[in-house]
Amino acid sequence: MTVFVPDMPDLIRATVDYLEQDLLPTLTGYQRFHTHVGVNVLHIVLRQLTQGEALQAQEWLRLRELLDSQDALAELNRQLADALDDGSLPLDAPGLVPHLRATLHGALQINNPQWTVGHEPTAA
Question: For the segment 70-92, what is each residue's pLDDT rounded down to a tens digit?
Answer without folding.
Answer: 999 999 999 999 999 999 999 99
